[in-house]
Structure formats: structure tokens, C-alpha cells
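Hi,

I'm pasting everything inline rather than attaching a file, because the server keeps stripping attachments. The sequence lines come first, and each chain or strand is labelled.
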Amino acid sequence: MMGVVLVCDIIFGSVRLPLEALWSDDILYREIIYNFRLPKALTAVITGAAISVAGLIMQTLFRNPLAGPYVLGVSSGASLGVAVYLLAGGLLPVALTQSGWGLVIAAITGAVLVLLLVLAVSLHVRQAVSLLIVGIMFGQIAGSLVTILQNSSNPDSLKLFVVWTFGSLSAVGWNYMQVMLLLITVGLTIVFAIQKSLNGLLLGENYAQGLGINITRTRFLIIVAVALLAGTTTAFTGPIAFIGMAVPHLVRGLFRTSDHSITIPGTMLCGAILLLLCDLATQLPADGYTLPINAISALVGAPIIIWIILKNKRTIEN
Amino acid sequence: MLKTTHLNIGYGKHFVQRGLNLSASAGDLICLTGTNGTGKSTLLRTLAGLQKTLGGHITIQGKDVEKLTNAERATLLSLVLTDTITVENLTLHDLVAMGRFPYTNWAGKLSEEDENIINQSLEQVNLTHKANCYICEVSDGEKQRCVIAKALAQDTPLVLLDEPTAHLDLPNRIEIMLLLRRLSVNMRKTFLLSTHELDLALQMADKIWLMGNDGVQVGIPEDLMLDGKFQETFGSDTFRFDETDGHCKINHPMGNLEVAVIGEKPAILWLERALLRCGIRTVPTADITIEAHHDHFAIGDRKANSIEETLKLLAEK
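And the predicted assembly:
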């Protein structure tokens, strides 16, 4: 299924390609596929997998079905970084603002800064719920700073910033892709390595500790993994809403299990497919016009979350 | 097996109990009881390593618990807590399988031996037929038994249980206690459980750890009862422990009405209970005398067919 969606995603775009284009020698087709469609489709796969896994481990850590990669303030931190970079950019050295890396570095810096703060707090706070609230508060503070920056910036840079918040999968070229892939791989490796501790955390921190799991270390690794997975993708593609929160629920429902040895790969697969589908949907209007990915992912993700709430309500009533 | 020396427990700078010297042997079923706030949960949590000691030592099989890593401690003691388990899509088998965590590799792969232990644990608590049910589908009693099975699968000499019978109905409470009783005898495991179920504790425990505000009284239930330690610890004017059967009797005299009661068992026993419940004292020298017969009650020349009618007659007086 993933292969089919991937091929569809490559073929359909603002210029519709025939299926033969995939193997034709036509220089124009090759150019479009190699430099535009393929990187974009790969970005969708990597991003979808990464933010969904980030959502999964957040939900496990906080034992809260509505936690997502952004509740720890990752996206707000990244937004703050980008806002500082784009809106207050005049103050930064030209060499930094001219290269495309500036935006990426700004976003990662912002995300990592917020996560470092949360991490520092996590060493002193025992309860995961308190940590969740602290994360949300840091996110709020970052959000307010962004608003202040927006208020006092010129319309041109404001537009640039707003476009970044729409999210985009097409901004990642091959040179960025390598870095992104490397960081995501490290993040996913950490997640696979702690899958047993994640399963233990499902029972709550006391039981997990009783099973011999080192809570502080596990929590630290989870936050590092989220920083890598969500921070990196947010930096490269902008904030992509709801996928990270919604996909883990879909997977647990589909596979009828909470065992991380199944849900981690399952979440990666479903996240990749769902984001490819979202990307396909952004091109529905066709012919030179695409919708922002963030609008579509929210349209897909929000109903899933409503469904979860209704489902939970039913279980409580029973 | 389990031994504490000069153990201080509490939170931060606040001491709840000081200088506890307690010990338990293999196969003991110990009930930890006492009024709220005397530190039952704090003691269990400290023994479990979930919170730091504020001085003193805990040893299990001669090993100093505070010097062990989490993983080492998990092979010595397992926990049954009051924390609710709300995982969606977790089968009973998978929950019990988590008990094998201290013994499996990084990916948590279960060997054939692990599977055998899981199945045996489920069998011990009579849940084999529900192994593939989801945890959210079974009753509270079954859920609690399953958590106990998880603790059994963890294969530790000591099991700590924090109020394992709370929220359960009477048959389930008794079943859980019988289960622990059986396991402690058959498997020589030591169970330490906190409970407010005095009746059950008195009838099932090998030892009682009775926590008061100024330390812990240790002994077999009968000795503690005979020495009046329960009355001392729970001490209150509103109820007393009946010295003949250990049940607690609520004592709340209302008004000055006193009656004398004579007659046959069991009618007289239930009549006395009814009077006690209504706050009417029974005194042998009282002016009013109630006669209890097997089919009727009489106050002077007036007759009543039930205890309810007797009480109504009394109310008229």
C-alpha cells in the first residue's frame, strides 16, 4: 500500500506526469521526478514516520491519549527560533541569513532550547503530569514571544513566517535530506532501543520502577528522542499538525495492541502513509495550485481525535 | 529475609515513623494495618525503593536494598499497587508477561521458560481461561488477581501489596486473601500487605504489623488482641473491639434510656445488636426488662413479634 501511495505521490503534482515518466529517459521528467517529486515524497515518508513515533512515545510517557510531540513545546520552540530568525533577522550576520541553513538551524535551536528547559525540570519533577504542564507553559511563553515579534515586524518577513507555519514538504532538497535522515535515524534508534522500558511505562511509573526500569534515564532518552524526531522535522518542514497525536491511536486500534515492538514500526508505517495521503490531498486542486499541508493534516487528524474522545466516552459509560 | 534496622521513613524533612526494627521470614503473610496517616503506604513505598529512606537500613536476603540497582531490586521484590492500570489493548497474558522484564533481553523477548512461568502464574490465580482477554474487559477482582500473577511471574521472594482488597466486594476480598494465604504456604513467598480489613487480617495473617503514631507493634493477631493493642492503636470512645470475638462494636449512647435483656440465643444476641445500633445501653439493673423468646419478645405485659416492633414499643415509653 505504501508503495502505491508513494508512486501516486510522485506522479500527481502541479504538473501531472504519466506513469511511464517513472522510467522514461525524458530529461524534463527525470528533472521533475529526481529534484522535486522524489525528495518531497521521501520527506513525507520520513516526516510522517518521525512525528508519529514522537507522538507515540509522548503518549506513553505521559499516559495521556492527547499528548503529542508538540505538547512539550517543541513546535512553539521551533516557531520562536524561526520567528526570531525571520522577523528579527536584520540584526543577524548576513552570511547566516543568506544561506538556507539559517532557518533550519534557528528552528532546531529553538526546539532544543525549550526541550533542554523541560529536561532540566524533568530531573526535579517526579510526576509526568507536572512535566506535561511545564511543557505546555514553556510552549505558551514561546508562543507569546512569537506574537510580540510578529506585532513589531514588517509585512514581508511576517508573510515568510506565516508561510513557514503552513508547513511544507517540498522545501527539503537532497543536501538537507542527508542531515534530516541522519538525525531521524538516531532518534528512531533510541526509540527502538528503549522499547521494553516503554512497555513498562504503560503501567505507570511506580510499576515500571518495580519492574526494574530506570525511570529517570528512560524519561531522559524519551525527551532526547522527541527533540531529534519532532525538532528535526519541524525545522525542515514547519509544524505539521495533529499527525503525531492521531497516528498512534490509529495504530493501537488497527493492531489491537499497545506493545511497542509492534506499535513502533506500525506507527512509522501508518504515519508515512497518512502524510503521503495528506500530501496527495494538497494537490487535489491540481494545475499549478497546492494547499498548505498543515490545513490538510488538521482536516484529517482532528476528526480522528474527536473519534478517540467519543470512543473513550463510550468505554467510560460501559 | 526482610529486615529493617533503625529505619526512618517520611517525605523530605517530614518524618512519619522513626527507628523501625522489623523483620519477616520466608512464607510469612503479614498484614500491615493502622489508622490513616500513620505511614502504611510510606513504609511500603520505602521498602519498595519508590522513595528514599530517611536513615537506617533495609536488607532483603542480606542485601542492602539502597545499594542495589533498580534491575537487581526487581528480582528481590515485586509490587501490587493501588495505581490503576488503564492500558488499552493489553491482554492479561501480556500484563503478566511484564513480570518477566527483569529477566529478558533489551527487546523483551520471551523464552519458552518465560512463557511457562507466565502460564503457571495465570494458573495460580485461576485466570488461564482469560489469558487472551483484554484488561479493560475483565472485572476488578480479576484485574487484581492478574496484577498478583504479574508479581508472581516476577519470581521474587518478597511481594509488597498496597491495599490489594480495596474496591473489591466481599467474596473477592476473601478470595484474594485466601489466594495469598495459599501462595505463601505453597511457594514460601513472603507477602506484606497493607489493609484496613481488620476482620480479614485477624483471621488470615501470620503476623500483624500494627502501626500507631509512635511506632509499630508486631505480633500474631491473637496476642495483639489479648493485650489490647488494637484498642490502644485505634483507641476511641466510639467503638471497642469485642474481647470475645475480635469484632469491632460501635458504641454511641444516645439519651438516657437503659434496658435489661434476658432470654434465649440467638434472639437475645440480635436484640442486643439492635439496641446497640439505636444507642440504647443494656444494663442488667435497668428498670425496663425485655424478654427475648425464640418466636416473640416481651416488655412487661406487652408482646412484640419482631425486633422492629420491640423497638417501636420502647420508643413509646
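The mean pLDDT of chain B is 90.

If the labels don't parse on your end, tell me and I'll reformat.
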